[in-house]
Specification:
two-stranded antiparallel ribbon, 40% helix, globular
Length: 116
């Protein structure tokens, strides 16, 4: 399915949303803060970025409830999944988001054309 410009904008984190997520996460990777599988983290890939819980490829919205700050290495572990960690990481990611948003609902993180 081809995405329209309007749809694409809804899937991206705005600069304002990115700043709110960085502030909420205290500028730290949520997985590093948990000490999650640090044996896989070399620190050789510097930088952090916002990770989607529901990926853009699955029409995940660019909203605070769908994102968290991650180092590039943990983000790669989450997205790549070659170590079999994705299900566990998503479980921890979900628990993290629920700690801030008690009414968090995965279904509300997905773009649906007629919801807007």
């Amino acid at each position: 399915m081809a995405k329209s410009h309007k749809t694409t904008r809804r899937l991206e984190f705005s600069q304002k949303t990115r700043e709110r997520i960085k502030d909420r996460d205290h500028g730290e990777c949520i997985f590093c803060a948990m000490g999650y599988h640090m044996e896989y983290i070399s620190g050789r890939i510097p930088g952090k970025e916002i990770m989607h819980f529901v990926p853009r490829s699955q029409m995940g919205l660019g909203i605070e409830e769908n994102g968290a700050l991650g180092c590039l290495e943990h983000h790669e572990l989450l997205d790549n999944g070659n170590k079999g960690l994705r299900p566990e990481m998503l479980g921890r990611f979900e628990a993290y988001l629920r700690s801030f948003y008690p009414e968090w609902d995965k279904d509300k993180l997905v773009y649906r054309k007629y919801d807007f």
